Amino acid sequence: MPSTTDRPDDSEDPFAVAEATLDVRETGRETVPIERPTEPIDRPTGALEAGDRPTVLVDEKKLGEQPTVKVPGQRKPPPRSRHAPLPVAVAFATLWSAALCYLPVAAVIGMARTLEGQGGLGGAAHAGLAGWLLGHGVPIGTSIGPLGLPPLLLTVLIVWRLNRAGLHVTRAIGARRTGRIGDALLVAFSIALTYSLLGSVASLAVDGKGTEVTPARAAINFFVLGLLGALAGSLRGTDALGVLARRTPRPLRDGLRTGVMAALFILAAGAAVTGLSVAVDGGQAAETISVYQTGVAGQAGITLVSLAYGANATVWAAAYLLGPGFALGTGSEIGLTGVVVGKLPALPLLAGVPDGPLGAGGAVLLAVPVLAAVAAGWLLVLRLQRSDRLGEKPALPWSRVLGGSLLAGPAAGLVLGVACRASGGSLGDGRLATIGPDPWQVGLVATVMVAVSASLGAAAARTFAPAPKA
């Protein structure tokens, strides 16, 4: 085979130029300088016989240049994309996320303010900004005391939008799928710092007569939520989450996944109980709304405010099913075994609060979180069998089955304890200064219950569930 760097001289066969060009295609090089031959090139006509090599036609107008030779099976390299600077991407994503969370709040509170006949765009914007700060857990000082009960549904929306911001910034700066944990931390910290600055500015705008806000508290809350939400998105965007998962010991990874799944099952049961109780007492909820002498806009506003606190009621119902229950004011107690509660605010959501202990029905409700944890343990074994593709014999080792199930207890207790802490707060200095479940009691009960129930479910699945064939 002729070398790709050799050039045929004038004395060689005129087809040498074509031979050299064809060799370039075989070696995979893209360009090669070709000298202009002194004699014309005779091109054969007719069909090629079997075994003959095809003739490469050379454009005489481009002789002496460096033509591009296409290599079969080789794709053209994609053009280099221009990545956005980190400050620009962070500023745009953070402001966009904040706007998408603030505007719905301003609209809902603006409709609810028609209850008092207080219209106006400026008042709605100011009240919406205060409600937006409340969704971050920032207490708002009022004439009746601090309002510190955050609408948890708004908090979930805020964290989700920050998660999307972390994902978008990761893509914008070209750190997508790099697998570098440092890139994820840099994106999350930048968004959290920008979001903290935004929260400080919002608190200064709200702070005034009738609504007192501490800028330092707002900066801390905004930074924590911004860091948690953006870190979740940046870890997914850079694929650093998979890197961390592979570095985590398998029993710990199985326990975390099973515990989170059990906690979500219990919260789903709480949501079902909340919806059922409100539906049963739907007449009382309708009467509560009719008490407000307002139009359609005001009724829609108060209904949407109740829905925003629906996530809080879901966590409270989960604590109710677990046993510790929750409080709706100082000295109150709402649990399966007893109900002590005074006069409640006129909110449709509170129409489903039980009037007394459920008796025998309470024992049935206590079995709901137990069954949820058993299902999580059962699914743990099925997932391990699918991932390992084990045959019917030998079965999964007991150490792995029970290890992941027992570690699921602390994981579920941590998730439910944090949820209870986030769902509670105060509505002034009076009797409603304490609202929500005790996070320590709920976390402790959930830890023990999930660890035992998930172990039973996993043991039953290992014993009776058929393993998938390899």
TrEMBL record:
<feature type="transmembrane region" description="Helical">
    <location>
        <begin position="144"/>
        <end position="163"/>
    </location>
</feature>
<protein>
    <recommendedName>
        <fullName>Integral membrane protein</fullName>
    </recommendedName>
</protein>
<feature type="region of interest" description="Disordered">
    <location>
        <begin position="1"/>
        <end position="82"/>
    </location>
</feature>
<feature type="transmembrane region" description="Helical">
    <location>
        <begin position="86"/>
        <end position="109"/>
    </location>
</feature>
<keyword id="KW-0472">Membrane</keyword>
<keyword id="KW-0812">Transmembrane</keyword>
<feature type="transmembrane region" description="Helical">
    <location>
        <begin position="444"/>
        <end position="465"/>
    </location>
</feature>
<feature type="transmembrane region" description="Helical">
    <location>
        <begin position="300"/>
        <end position="322"/>
    </location>
</feature>
<feature type="transmembrane region" description="Helical">
    <location>
        <begin position="259"/>
        <end position="280"/>
    </location>
</feature>
<feature type="transmembrane region" description="Helical">
    <location>
        <begin position="359"/>
        <end position="381"/>
    </location>
</feature>
<feature type="transmembrane region" description="Helical">
    <location>
        <begin position="401"/>
        <end position="424"/>
    </location>
</feature>
<keyword id="KW-1133">Transmembrane helix</keyword>
<dbReference type="Pfam" id="PF19877">
    <property type="entry name" value="DUF6350"/>
</dbReference>
<feature type="compositionally biased region" description="Basic and acidic residues">
    <location>
        <begin position="22"/>
        <end position="42"/>
    </location>
</feature>
<feature type="transmembrane region" description="Helical">
    <location>
        <begin position="218"/>
        <end position="238"/>
    </location>
</feature>
<feature type="transmembrane region" description="Helical">
    <location>
        <begin position="184"/>
        <end position="206"/>
    </location>
</feature>
<dbReference type="InterPro" id="IPR045931">
    <property type="entry name" value="DUF6350"/>
</dbReference>
